Amino acid sequence: MKSQRSKLLHEVAGRPMLSWAVAAARGLHPDHLVVVVGHLRDQVEAHLADDAPDVTTAVQAEQKGTGHAVARGLEGLGDLSGEVVVTYGDVPMLTSQTLAGLVQAHRDGGYLATVLTADVPDPTGYGRILRQGERVAGIIEHKDASPTQRLISEINSGIYVFDAEALQQGVAALSNDNAQGEYYLTDVVTMAASGRLSGSDRSLTGVGAYRTEDLWQTEGVNDRVQLARINAEVNRRIVEGWMRAGVTVADPDTTWIQPDVDLGADVTILPGTLLNGATSVGEGATVGPDTTLTDCEVGAGAVVSRTEATLAVVGEGVRVGPWANLRPGTVLDAGVKIGAFVETKNAHLGSGTAVPRLVYAGDVTVGRDVTIGAGAMFANTDGSTTSTTTVGDGAFVGSNVVIVAPVDIAEGSFLAAGSAITQDVPAGALAVARERGHISPGWVARHQGQDAPPQSSDHRSGTPETTSSPEEHL
């Protein structure tokens, strides 16, 4: 991967590959679930401690092959009975259902070992399955295969189920007498096929194969090109599933939906939309274009366009965007309107409130049917302390008003445009807080050598027009 991060922690559909693998294995309800860790194991162990604390880890300090890894995984488990399933952390599309089918085929066939196989169009580089009827006679690596054997399209996925006793015998007998100096798990399969191993039940014999028709479930990830291919295929399946469930996706190629997302009937997803985490979208809502929602709740009939939102709640019938940014803690009640270039954070806006454009609303509780004009700013921090503001029902906040928290703007009050509000405003009051204005007639001519234009007169007083307002007036 050419990365400072463990390959197993690179993500498919928003989840680390290892999480997909652990979830598939956990679906078998095993008595023991062991992850063998090696390269960058500190990162992997830290992830497992948070994501899968029930998992046991085994350390493979030196990477000496798959057989060596399995030997490390078996250490400390004592004498095992039943079956041992061996799978990989970099095969994210493998499912619990496929693993369960593999185990069932193993039991039904009475085998010592059973391998998951697939027929692929181009088997180059894969180990080939050598059969004797229904049984597997052996596995031959591509580099060792004859021209005839290379024509075989059934490949070894490297995913197995073993009788526990046979596996322990086989691992103990492995040799690294080969060009790579490694211990190969395929040698245990060969031992089982040739009758050199015995199982916990003496009737168990030979090696079986369980073929999957879904080639993607055997696909591993070794570089970022393969990672992108897997991500695209997983997303294609998710998007197709939602379309078949009654969701309109205008452009599946530019729509990305993660597996924990929930969508209601008749939702419309427009191009360039990413739905991440535990996002839910209610019936009849429209999301997009060019929208990213992460762990958000969108109510029925809402419209969210060209918006970035994280940990936000958008109520029924709300309209958001374009170019809005809903940061964590945003709650928009039914019927709220959020317009262009509006940013919210820890903000609860009551039903019917309108924030048309160019507003920052952070750490604020706004009542119902409030209008907040363009350019308004809720100044919520002095650089070290964050404070909150409340705005009552039916209040009006004019354009370019700065509200310096903490203040309480009571219901029905009116904040004049351009004001800087630093104190509470009582119900029904007008708040004006501006710098004193001044107009100097003839200033341009005096400073630029031009003839002064005729002075206008105030039609009420006959004096040159000037404007002023008190510095603070409530």
UniProtKB/TrEMBL annotation:
<comment type="function">
    <text>Catalyzes the last two sequential reactions in the de novo biosynthetic pathway for UDP-N-acetylglucosamine (UDP-GlcNAc). The C-terminal domain catalyzes the transfer of acetyl group from acetyl coenzyme A to glucosamine-1-phosphate (GlcN-1-P) to produce N-acetylglucosamine-1-phosphate (GlcNAc-1-P), which is converted into UDP-GlcNAc by the transfer of uridine 5-monophosphate (from uridine 5-triphosphate), a reaction catalyzed by the N-terminal domain.</text>
</comment>
<dbReference type="GO" id="GO:0006048">
    <property type="term" value="P:UDP-N-acetylglucosamine biosynthetic process"/>
</dbReference>
<feature type="binding site">
    <location>
        <position position="327"/>
    </location>
    <ligand>
        <name>UDP-N-acetyl-alpha-D-glucosamine</name>
    </ligand>
</feature>
<feature type="region of interest" description="Pyrophosphorylase">
    <location>
        <begin position="1"/>
        <end position="224"/>
    </location>
</feature>
<dbReference type="InterPro" id="IPR005882">
    <property type="entry name" value="Bifunctional_GlmU"/>
</dbReference>
<keyword id="KW-0808">Transferase</keyword>
<comment type="subunit">
    <text>Homotrimer.</text>
</comment>
<feature type="region of interest" description="Disordered">
    <location>
        <begin position="444"/>
        <end position="474"/>
    </location>
</feature>
<feature type="binding site">
    <location>
        <position position="141"/>
    </location>
    <ligand>
        <name>UDP-N-acetyl-alpha-D-glucosamine</name>
    </ligand>
</feature>
<protein>
    <recommendedName>
        <fullName>Bifunctional protein GlmU</fullName>
        <ecNumber>2.7.7.23</ecNumber>
        <ecNumber>2.3.1.157</ecNumber>
    </recommendedName>
</protein>
<comment type="pathway">
    <text>Nucleotide-sugar biosynthesis; UDP-N-acetyl-alpha-D-glucosamine biosynthesis; N-acetyl-alpha-D-glucosamine 1-phosphate from alpha-D-glucosamine 6-phosphate (route II): step 2/2.</text>
</comment>
<comment type="similarity">
    <text>In the N-terminal section; belongs to the N-acetylglucosamine-1-phosphate uridyltransferase family.</text>
</comment>
<dbReference type="GO" id="GO:0000902">
    <property type="term" value="P:cell morphogenesis"/>
</dbReference>
<feature type="binding site">
    <location>
        <position position="222"/>
    </location>
    <ligand>
        <name>Mg(2+)</name>
    </ligand>
</feature>
<feature type="binding site">
    <location>
        <position position="434"/>
    </location>
    <ligand>
        <name>acetyl-CoA</name>
    </ligand>
</feature>
<feature type="binding site">
    <location>
        <position position="417"/>
    </location>
    <ligand>
        <name>acetyl-CoA</name>
    </ligand>
</feature>
<feature type="compositionally biased region" description="Polar residues">
    <location>
        <begin position="463"/>
        <end position="474"/>
    </location>
</feature>
<keyword id="KW-0677">Repeat</keyword>
<feature type="binding site">
    <location>
        <begin position="65"/>
        <end position="66"/>
    </location>
    <ligand>
        <name>UDP-N-acetyl-alpha-D-glucosamine</name>
    </ligand>
</feature>
<keyword id="KW-0963">Cytoplasm</keyword>
<dbReference type="GO" id="GO:0008360">
    <property type="term" value="P:regulation of cell shape"/>
</dbReference>
<dbReference type="InterPro" id="IPR029044">
    <property type="entry name" value="Nucleotide-diphossugar_trans"/>
</dbReference>
<dbReference type="Pfam" id="PF12804">
    <property type="entry name" value="NTP_transf_3"/>
</dbReference>
<keyword id="KW-0548">Nucleotidyltransferase</keyword>
<feature type="binding site">
    <location>
        <position position="222"/>
    </location>
    <ligand>
        <name>UDP-N-acetyl-alpha-D-glucosamine</name>
    </ligand>
</feature>
<dbReference type="InterPro" id="IPR018357">
    <property type="entry name" value="Hexapep_transf_CS"/>
</dbReference>
<dbReference type="GO" id="GO:0003977">
    <property type="term" value="F:UDP-N-acetylglucosamine diphosphorylase activity"/>
</dbReference>
<feature type="binding site">
    <location>
        <position position="399"/>
    </location>
    <ligand>
        <name>acetyl-CoA</name>
    </ligand>
</feature>
<keyword id="KW-0479">Metal-binding</keyword>
<feature type="binding site">
    <location>
        <position position="90"/>
    </location>
    <ligand>
        <name>Mg(2+)</name>
    </ligand>
</feature>
<dbReference type="InterPro" id="IPR025877">
    <property type="entry name" value="MobA-like_NTP_Trfase"/>
</dbReference>
<keyword id="KW-0012">Acyltransferase</keyword>
<feature type="binding site">
    <location>
        <position position="374"/>
    </location>
    <ligand>
        <name>acetyl-CoA</name>
    </ligand>
</feature>
<feature type="binding site">
    <location>
        <position position="60"/>
    </location>
    <ligand>
        <name>UDP-N-acetyl-alpha-D-glucosamine</name>
    </ligand>
</feature>
<feature type="binding site">
    <location>
        <position position="360"/>
    </location>
    <ligand>
        <name>UDP-N-acetyl-alpha-D-glucosamine</name>
    </ligand>
</feature>
<comment type="pathway">
    <text>Bacterial outer membrane biogenesis; LPS lipid A biosynthesis.</text>
</comment>
<dbReference type="GO" id="GO:0005737">
    <property type="term" value="C:cytoplasm"/>
</dbReference>
<feature type="region of interest" description="N-acetyltransferase">
    <location>
        <begin position="246"/>
        <end position="474"/>
    </location>
</feature>
<feature type="binding site">
    <location>
        <position position="127"/>
    </location>
    <ligand>
        <name>UDP-N-acetyl-alpha-D-glucosamine</name>
    </ligand>
</feature>
<feature type="region of interest" description="Linker">
    <location>
        <begin position="225"/>
        <end position="245"/>
    </location>
</feature>
<keyword id="KW-0511">Multifunctional enzyme</keyword>
<feature type="binding site">
    <location>
        <position position="7"/>
    </location>
    <ligand>
        <name>UDP-N-acetyl-alpha-D-glucosamine</name>
    </ligand>
</feature>
